[in-house]
Amino acid sequence: MKVVKFGGSSLASATQLEKVLQIVKEDPERRFVVVSAPGKRNEQDTKVTDALIRYYRDYVEENDVTSHQEWIIERYSDMVKELNLKPSIIEKISKSILKLATLPIEDNDFLYDAFLAAGENNNAKLIAAYFNQNGIAARYVHPKEAGMIVSSEPGNAQILPGSYDKIEELANAQEVLVIPGFFGVTQDGQICTFSRGGSDITGSIIAAGVKADLYENFTDVDGIFAAHPGIIAHPHSIPELTYREMRELAYAGFSVLHDEALIPAYRGKIPLVIKNTNNPSHPGTRIVLQHTTQALPVVGIAADSHFTSINMSKYLMNREVGFGRKVLQILEDLNIRWEHMPTGIDDLSLILRDRELTPIKEEEILRQLRQKLEVDHAEIEHGLSIIMIVGENMKSHVGLTATATKALSDHQINIQMISQGSSEVSIMIVINSEQEKAAIKALYQAFFSEVH
Ligand code: ASP
């Protein structure tokens, strides 16, 4: 049995819902359907979740909220009309949207979450009604009934491990179950959402809970591309990725799937596939525990900008006991997270995301490095990008770093730092952000020219 999750763009209009109906109909193993709120119908459109945020803001500021209510209700009623659904469904939806503006504002930590969750909750009701009217016996299931019990962290809920036993019982259902994504309920019965984009997490939890054979995540692209399509024209979609490869690519900006969505499926050993609602016959990208086919040594190349490097050197640094700890202590005291730490004999760099620093913190770090640690040289360098060349099969291949460095040197791209963890699942290269696009193009050509 399969759990299918549809993202907002797959559920934005009646035309999209017709595709969803066909996808669910054509495979009787698709027994659990997790849905997002309606997304954008075109570039200029607004996602229902974003409209709910505006509605919430005006409500708490005690402004007039009628235009928000009308706009949101109309989004659903357009679909209800186009799909010829019974009017009773839109009555239900509209009541639920209006009711939000009666919830208590004072001392209500979960008010924002209640507004946000209404997007998926009402969509699930609409979709269950649509399925029932079109030949699929379906039932809407509220996350509370499903057993999605989460921690009391508004906007950042975490599933409680005890939930899985209850979720498993869903496997006995006779109908197709339509479950709203993005939120669960706390032990006190409060609606509490995951972080933004969190419907992917719900799908993964349900898949792990019911011990599905497959978790299908339907979006609007043919899977995960080997490089960013904004940089490489028509990059190929990766047929198969391991969870570790996916994690490395996601780290450097590949964001097709919510980061936290990998964990439940991974722990439950459930394979995952990313597919395209608009092109469902495309096999998409499978995310598996171990490669089943002989994948290329490199599966994807990702890049992310906005990194800073704190560089320092001190003669005989390698002989000084505790030097590294003292450097990290400076960062810890300033509540700064770091990402990478390439070292030489007498020098050390710390690479971190720009957002961790402020001019005052930078000055303080340099001061402490010079005064307390007595480094010979310390500087802070901005404007860096990280390139990740990812592939588990790199382990068994010789010369891949040489291929990468040659491709970059042929294009006059200076490598500031390079490192490869002992797991050899990725090679990380730090370069100047101005050369990021050129670097991706050069590397894509070097590693994938044969794929095309
Ligand atoms: N609708 C929510 C959001 O826009 C969650 C989701 O679509 O996954 O963040």
UniProtKB/TrEMBL annotation:
Substrates-to-products reaction catalysed: L-aspartate + ATP = 4-phospho-L-aspartate + ADP
EC number assigned by the record: 2.7.2.4
Enzyme class (EC, first level): transferase
Keyword Cell membrane (UniProt): no
Molecular function per GO: aspartate kinase activity; ATP binding
Every ACT domain range: 389-452
InterPro entries in the cross-refs: AceGlu_kinase-like_sf (IPR036393), ACT-like_dom_sf (IPR045865), ACT_Aspartokinase (IPR054352), ACT_dom (IPR002912), AKIII_YclM_N (IPR035804), Asp/Glu/Uridylate_kinase (IPR001048), Asp_kin_monofn (IPR005260), Asp_kinase (IPR001341)
Keyword flag Transferase: yes
UniProt-annotated binding residues for substrate: T49, E120
Positions with a binding annotation for ATP: K5, F6, G7, G8, T219, D220
Primary role: Catalyzes the phosphorylation of the beta-carboxyl group of aspartic acid with ATP to yield 4-phospho-L-aspartate, which is involved in the branched biosynthetic pathway leading to the biosynthesis of amino acids threonine, isoleucine and methionine.
Family to which this protein belongs: Belongs to the aspartokinase family.
Protein name: Aspartokinase
Phylogenetic placement of the source organism: Bacteria, Bacillati, Bacillota, Bacilli, Lactobacillales
